[in-house]
Every structure is written in structure tokens, then in C-alpha cells.
Request: fold
Amino acid sequence: MSALTLVWFKRDLRIDDHRALVEAARRGPVLPLYIVEPDYWQLPDSSQRQQDFVADSLIELDQQLRRLGQGLVMALGDAVEVLAGLHRRHGFDTIHCHEETGNDWTFARDRAVRAWCRDRGVAVQEYPQFGVKRGLHDRDGWSRHWEAFMAEAALDPPTRLAPVLETRLPGDPFSTSPAFDTTPCPGRQPGGIGAGQSVLESFLTGRGRSYRGGISSPLSAEVAGSRLSPYITWGALSLRRIVQRTRTARSEARATNDTRLATSLNAFDQRLHWHCHFIQKLEQQPAIEFHNVHRGFDGMREHDFDHDRFQAWATGQTGYPLVDACMRYLVHHGWLNFRMRAMLMSFAAYHLWLHWREPALHLARLFTDYEPGIHFNQCQMQSGTTGINTPRIYNPVKQAQDQDGQGRFVRRWVPELAGVPDSHIFEPWQLGLTEREQFGSTGYPEPIVDYQQAAREARARLGEYRKQPGFREQARAVHQALGSRRGSTRRKTRSTKTDPRQGRLI
Ligand SMILES: Cc1cc2nc3c(=O)[nH]c(=O)nc-3n(C[C@H](O)[C@H](O)[C@H](O)COP(=O)(O)OP(=O)(O)OC[C@H]3O[C@@H](n4cnc5c(N)ncnc54)[C@H](O)[C@@H]3O)c2cc1C
Reply:
């Protein structure tokens, strides 16, 4: 009998376009494994909503593997100990898995596993699962690499797996491994491959038409956005398959003169590229999870973390209706559209002058689609600490006027303001006490800061740091290592009418 290969599933919970599984099956018998790692689920960026999504996906993955001939092996514990135990019992000689660009903890875990494999003479074969390239030092030629990866044929699953071991998935795979954060998430998207495929299908054949123009407002984005993020994050769908399906749908739309769909799918395709663009940054510089991308900002916000402000922001009690509505919506759904995520982070970083790390962890726990590479980079971008992006300070009142003109979103998620007339719905503090009593809004907090003054002060503080000697040289080095080589971002940055050192108000 040929040697046994262990396929370790991590954030790639599917059998379609799964190179590790396909290559392993070509060698001979396969042991497909998922490890529930209690220490991972106790990290401050993990949560039950993520765990529940993974559980849905594991159940379906197991069913699919079972149909091929060998069900999923579930094990609980430290990865090295689990692998050592399985090695003693089954004597596999190779591990196949996908490369993971996760947080610091998974990075250290993978190193420990590789060291154990070296000691035991077990070979490890890791495959990239999307356009992130290991071992890069700068971004020259990266876009070409991404395109080439996406153009390669996606892999069909193996037709059969030889049965190796009787397995039975526990009813709740995580019952003995509670998550750090257990905030209920009644509006969470269901996990799993089938759910992901129907979300993709409905987007490419209909919903996608409203993508351009529909993803900025929290009212329309819920339907107009693809909503594929958690399926991509946990690997229930292959990014390459999504890119290829999108391009086919775009060609069909062009052929039938469906310009609206074709243009929208163009914009969507670009986001799929951004997905890997941001993860590549963390792959090259894992320190981004903890430290400012541009170290010239070190010391700017580190010393005066205001816990009361953080608490008000985290619980949707800042007194700014759209900010609070977005936070409460996110708690309920585990998802929020890009613009509103950016506004939440910008409000924490600029108006409340909080260091990005704690707000980033809070948002990470609330996002079912938490993806460290995108997340920490975006949190830093919206806090102004990358040094290569024009700082954007989102005005919470203007955003509300632009994205929720009638106040429908605010009234739904901040019911304290349900009776306030349109004229004051985004600035309820302008009402007198008698009017507040009349409209029943007395339970809603006063604004936590004066948003205009806070934005002015933040811009000035940021500007001081950007004027320091050596700032530009370091920014150039950051750009060389991590910046996009696609012309558009840089052109936009240069042509902005505001002085980038002062920050842009939007
Ligand atoms: C502060 C902040 C934190 C974020 N954290 C995450 C995160 O943890 N996980 C995550 O998947 N996205 C994150 N994003 C990016 C973006 O908001 C989400 O990907 C998007 O809202 C998910 O909804 P969708 O699938 O409908 O997106 P669509 O617009 O339909 O995009 C399709 C896919 O492209 C990728 N994508 C979209 N926008 C971006 C972007 N700006 N940067 C990188 N990739 C993008 C995602 O994989 C997304 O699923 C964050 C944005 C901000 C401002």
C-alpha cells in the first residue's frame, strides 16, 4: 500500500479547487484532518460567530469528503500534539496543506509544526490558495503574478478517496473549545459550501447589477454587495473559481449589452484583487498586526487610551446616530459594508483619538469574515498610520446625510431616535430638552465629542507627525515594499485637492 498523506484543512474548508487535497489523492490514501485548537479560539480576535460559521462549513466538508470515500477526521488540541498522536497511530509520511497568512499565533503554530515535521522526517507540502506569494520583498511584478494564478485552470475535486479510517463528526465540533467572544449574532450568514455557491450565483445573475453605486449605503449594500467575504475568508469557496466565474459572467453581460452588470462586475473583480493585495502586505510584514506600518507614527496614540470612549464606541453609545447604528447593525449581523467599516474605524481613531489596536480587535471579533491581512491593514489605513495613503476623516453627520438620507437605517438600529423628525435625525443634540421629551429621545446619549473640533485636532496632530524629518523617506520605503503598483491609487493620491499632510475630510 502506498504511503499515507495527511491533508490539513485550515482556512480552506472545501474540496473544490483544493490543490493540497488533489495532489495528496494522486499519491495514494489520504487522511483529511481539521484540528480544533482551543488556544486559537481564546485569542482576542476570535469569536463564536466565526466558530459557528466554521462549524457549518465543516459539517458540509465532511459530507462531501464522505461521499468521496473518507470522512473528515476531527481532533481537539495543540496542533503538534494532535499530529504526533496521529503519526504514532497511522504513520503518515507527508502533510499537504495550503499556506496560511494568518495572525501571529497561527504563524508561530505553523513554524512549530514544520519543526516537528523536520524532527520526525515527515515532509510538508504547502500550496498557495490564492494570489499571495511567499518570500517577496517588494511588490514589483506582483499584479502579473496574481493574474497568472487566477488564469490557471481551477482544480476539480478527486473522484474518489480510499477509505482509511471510520470517522464521525461531533454534533457541535466546538462544544469543548469555547470562543473568546460569545456575543450573539442572530443575523449571521450561514456557513458552508452550498450557501456560498448560492450567494455567488445570486450575485452574478442578478444582485450584482446594483453593485456599482449600491455598496456605499448600509441600506442597499446588504443586497448590492456580493456578501461573499466569509466564504472567501474561511475558504468555503475558491477565490480563483470566483474570479473565473465573474469574468465569464462579465463577458456574457457584455455580449448581451447588459452594461450595468458588466461595469459592476468590473468593479467587483478589482475588489477580488485587493483581497490578495492586502493579505500580501501581512505576509511580507507580520508586524503590521501590532505595530504602525509607518513607524514614524509610533508614540502618536500609544499613551492615552481612553477606556470610556472606547466602551461608548464599542457599544454603539457615542451620541452620533450613524456611528451607533452601524455598530449595532454589525453586532447583529457580523457584517457591515466597506464604507461604514471605514467610518467606524475613522471615528475611533480620529474623533476619539484611540490607538487602532483595541478597536481593530473589537471589530475583528464582530466580523464573521475576519481576515487578518485585510483587517489590520484597513484599520491602519483608516487611522492614518500607513504613511502611504491619504488620511480620510469620515464626517459622521455628512456620511449619514449622504448614505441614509431619510434616516431609515438610523431609526431601525437606534430606536431611541425613532420619533425624531428628519430635520434633526442626524444631529439630535440640536433639539432642546422639551423637544427631546416630545420626540421621546431623552434616553439617547449626548455626543461624546464635538466632531468638528475633534477632526480639526486630529488633522493637526497627524500633520505634526507627517512633518517629522525622515518621514517621506520612510514612506517611500513602505511604498516600495508594500504599495500597489497599479497606477490608479497613486494618481488619485497626487491629484487630491487637499494637502495630504492635513488629511482629507469626506
Ligand atoms: C476597517 C476595515 C476592516 C475590514 N476588515 C475586513 C476583514 O476582516 N475581512 C474582509 O474580508 N474584509 C474586510 N474589510 C474589507 C471590506 O469591507 C469587506 O471585504 C467587504 O465589506 C465584505 O463584503 P462583500 O463580500 O459584500 O464585499 P464585496 O465588495 O462584494 O467584495 C468582494 C470581496 O473582495 C474583497 N474585498 C472587498 N473590499 C475589499 C477591501 N477594501 N480590501 C480588501 N479586500 C476587499 C473581500 O474578500 C470581499 O469579500 C475591511 C474594511 C475596513 C474598512
Observations:
- The pocket of flavin-adenine dinucleotide is lined by residues 215, 225-229, 232-233, 268, 271-272, 274-275, 278, 337-338, 341-342, 345, 367, 369-371, 374-375, 378-379, 382 (CB under 6 Å).
- Residues 488-503 have pLDDT under 50 and may be disordered.
